[in-house]
Predict the 3D structure of the following.
Amino acid sequence: MFVLLRHLQRVRREAALPRRQGARSLAIRHVDAGSCNACEHELTAIAAPQYDFQRFGLDIVASPRHADVLLVTGPITRRMEGPLLSAYEAMPEPRRVAALGDCALGCNVLADPAELALPLDQLLPVDLRIPGCPPTPAEISAAILEMIDGG
Amino acid sequence: MSPSHTAGFARQATETVAVAPVGWRDACLGELDRGGRFCGAYAVGAGAGRRWNALFADGEATRMLSLEVGEGEAVPTIVDLLPGADWDEREAHDLHGLDFAGRESLRPLVAHTAATGSWTVPVSGEGTYQVAVGPIHAGVIESGHFRFHVVGERILHLDPRLFYKHRGLQRAAEGASPERGLAFAQRACGACAVANSVAYALACEAALGLVADREARRGRTLLLELERLYNHLNDIAQICAGVGFAPGNMAFAALKERALRLNAELVGHRFLFGTVAIGAGPEVSAARADALRGALRELGEDAASAWRELSFAASVQARLGGVGVLSAEDAAALGAVGPAARAAGIALDCRSTSPGLWYGSSFAPAAPARPSGDVGARLEVRGVELPATLELLQELLAEPIGAGGSDPGPADPRGVARVESPRGETVCAVELTVARRLGRVHLRTGSYANWPALAHATADNLLPDFPLINKSFELCYACADR
Ligand code: SF4
């Protein structure tokens, strides 16, 4: 275990993480609405030692009831439209919606149109767009932090 | 370990046999008697003239039994002979309107409109109740629904309901050119993008009468092993997370991140998107190959020391034994593949029968010291395969990889390819129209094959252990839903 902790210490040193500036917090609820799973891999990676988004007060929470931001991936399949909308309904206000990845932005979507619901921005008010296929962990963290700092 | 197949017909051959309805079950049994292993079935077309094709793997060869299904006719089921065909039959019913005779029930699989009672197995008795989980889960997890039938904390039965992410990719690809179809195969799953694309490309090449040359085979094998590397690191991290062991989770997440960065340095994409092409392969210069070898050596040393630590973390190891057991017998009956099958003691790895790639003839499936089929054994398979993959990568990168191409070969009416993804055998079948457009694309990934085995392995376990069992299989939802 101590070897593992030493590994982690080294990674953190090499990543040269900036000091946390000021106090802030943001609770994120992720909903996969038909992604290819690479967007999820990158979203998970922002918790890895090289990025460690929790030091900015960002957290992925288990329930939409605890969330400030609904972070959506995928092109919105017909079958995920209902669960997506109920997750949004369950969120307290004020709430924000973020589209993660080109699919959620409605770009270059590949699918049988009959299997898709309306694009995300026609279902919910999208406040933050994070383009990329998939966006890198650094891009995801930067976009979310910019949103908090921008009010 | 140098590949023996340096020249000649380096491709998995496919032979198609037309079968009449009355002989269907006997023909399938005959395949099993000949040593064939069922590896999927798929329907083609709609209305009259539909066909039902079953695939059987036999070493490097694949045999296809093909049945013409007339209007109003039902296909004799094979699910009692081959429980692994359950999902294939149910999917064909939902998406192609095929009926199967002789089955107890054909519960909806892909179709989502029916009432809960129609897609779950009835479970009753004193103290039984259901726990519904998903489609949205607590963490960053793909969407899917699980219905647990439990007594107290103990799981009696699990009905998974996937296909929330069904995008109709196979259908959407129809009519496109083979080259354009690659994007659909890749998009089916980000974490298996290479395996799916390579299986698709090999299947198309078989249908087009092309045989990938030496350099293309080496280049594709490199990509496949890079994909396996980051996935295995990811899976070990996830199993650590499943038992709440944060140091292991973070150490392996950091190693996975390093592997992804190496991918980006090599090909410009962390998940190796856009690197597979039909009739061509990626090029790797001597300088890049050298740099990658060095970086992989360092990564391998750190992974080995982290793995050693993990094996001595008693609090982790104590949580892994006897949990989520999949016996060898059940694994074989349900058609389990990949690490899940190898952890149960089944020596099955498509890499040992892939002449279209660059694995040596001496390649042997990894064997865990204790093939107990539990979470611990599935973790161990990853641990054993990591150094093997790193060694393969060192061998592949010992010399630069030139621009790959293809040579003309015999064209099969249907192209079929089987490729070992990080989750197991992925089968792709491609049928072209006379105008050389995609008539049918069938992608049956390792995840698709393993989902029923995962559901089976949860029976008799505690409900709170499900996340751990789930992570020990680490199947993709996107891969199955397509
Ligand atoms: S944007 Fe790209 S990486 Fe993200 S889900 Fe869509 S296809 Fe996958």
About this structure: The mean pLDDT of chain A is 90. Chain A touches chain B through 47 residues (CB under 8 Å). Residues A 35-36, 38-39, 73-74, 101-103, 133-134; B 187, 190 surround iron/sulfur cluster (CB under 6 Å).
